[in-house]
């Protein structure tokens, strides 16, 4: 049923009620290194003011320096955030979509006490033209609040594949309200098809298996983010948290140039006691493979989502309702494959 299989042990001292602070902190550092978060893209206040006004900017691509340039000129008639004082302190922020985290954000300076700010600033991205043409530019305007949450004032999104690159002139564009999906931090990153199974110790005969086993069958992923014109070279990483050691780490082979890769890879973790299932979390992450660095595409976390692991508060025990239901179904149906289709998210 699968072309590759691997078996490794769930290794850490589960008998201690509270793991040592040293081992716990090193685990957390390792977790953060494999789980990049882009939720900060959505941090802010979206509902306090209505989007209004316009923004003037121009786009250009510098062939010599291989640089995408956004010339932000000015805004007019922005919404007033602080009605008592009749003021807004606006700035402009840009991202390249679909992978906001990869290229990062750019932003202008903050102009205080004005709804008609003038910037005349150039925001620059070092990026190949072929890659740029499969991106979208998201340009948004925000009110800067150093003591609280910044307030969203409006945005515009441009498909760069259809952009007229001979047009280097400054043009005015109306600012639009943010869509509900963006407000909620929902960005489609693909869907993973997989099956999981728990085999309790001794359930297949005397001392067979000698310890409990969690089987994870990664079947395929559909609709991955395409970061290059040639497609995406993807693979899946797997850890059973809180164990982030090399013994816990497994990965599939790389599937090249395919946004719908079929992995058909099975992983078996032994060393599980039944009570471990409420404190452990299976983290599956999908990555785009490149020579110098791998880029995070999305992931899932299978667990009870309680926020706690062996009595310690952890940020990775954050499973969604779908992921929790999937894990609970496995816990209740020993020795049975449970099939699931789960959306990838920006862990």
Automatic annotation (TrEMBL):
One of its GO terms (molecular function) is neurexin family protein binding. It comes from the Eukaryota. Pfam families: C2. PROSITE patterns: C2. InterPro entries: C2_dom, C2_domain_sf, SYTL1-5_C2B. Keywords: Cell membrane, Exocytosis, Membrane, Repeat. It is found in: Cell membrane. CDD domains: C2A_SLP-1_2, C2B_SLP_1-2-3-4. The keyword Metal-binding does not apply. Residues 51-173, 188-317 form the C2 domain. GO terms for cellular component: exocytic vesicle; plasma membrane. Its main location: membrane. GO terms for biological process: exocytosis. This is Synaptotagmin-like protein 2. The gene is Sytl2_0.
């Amino acid at each position: 049923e699968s072309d590759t299989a691997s078996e490794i042990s769930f290794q850490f001292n589960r008998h201690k009620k509270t793991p040592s602070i040293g081992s716990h902190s090193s685990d957390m550092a390792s977790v953060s290194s494999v789980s990049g978060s882009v939720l900060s893209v959505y941090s802010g206040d979206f509902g306090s003011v209505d989007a209004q006004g316009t923004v003037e900017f121009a786009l250009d691509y510098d062939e010599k320096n291989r640089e995408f340039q956004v010339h932000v000129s000015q805004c007019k008639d922005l919404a007033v955030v602080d009605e008592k004082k009749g003021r807004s302190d606006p700035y402009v922020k840009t991202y390249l979509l679909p992978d906001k985290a990869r290229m990062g954000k750019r932003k202008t300076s903050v102009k205080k006490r004005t709804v008609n700010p003038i910037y005349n600033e150039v925001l620059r991205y070092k990026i190949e033209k072929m890659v740029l043409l499969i991106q979208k530019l998201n340009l948004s305007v925000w009110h800067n609040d150093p003591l609280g949450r910044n307030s969203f004032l409006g945005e515009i999104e441009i498909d760069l594949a259809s952009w007229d690159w001979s047009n280097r002139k400054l043009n005015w564009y109306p600012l639009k309200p943010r869509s509900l999906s963006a407000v909620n931090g929902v960005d489609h990153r693909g869907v993973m098809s997989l099956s999981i199974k728990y085999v309790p110790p001794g359930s297949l005969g005397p001392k067979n298996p000698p310890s409990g086993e969690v089987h994870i069958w990664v079947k395929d992923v559909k609709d991955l983010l395409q970061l290059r014109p040639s497609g995406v070279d993807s693979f899946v990483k797997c850890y059973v948290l809180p164990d982030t050691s090399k013994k816990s780490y497994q990965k599939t082979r790389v599937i090249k140039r395919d946004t719908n890769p079929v992995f058909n890879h099975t992983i078996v973790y032994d060393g599980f006691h039944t009570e471990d299932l409420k404190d452990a979390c299976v983290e599956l992450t999908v990555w785009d493979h490149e020579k110098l660095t791998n880029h995070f595409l999305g992931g899932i976390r299978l667990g009870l989502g309680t926020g706690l692991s062996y009595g310690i508060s952890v940020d990775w025990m954050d499973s969604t309702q779908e992921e929790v239901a999937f894990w609970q179904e496995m816990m209740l149906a020993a020795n049975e494959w449970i099939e699931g289709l789960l959306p990838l998210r920006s862990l």
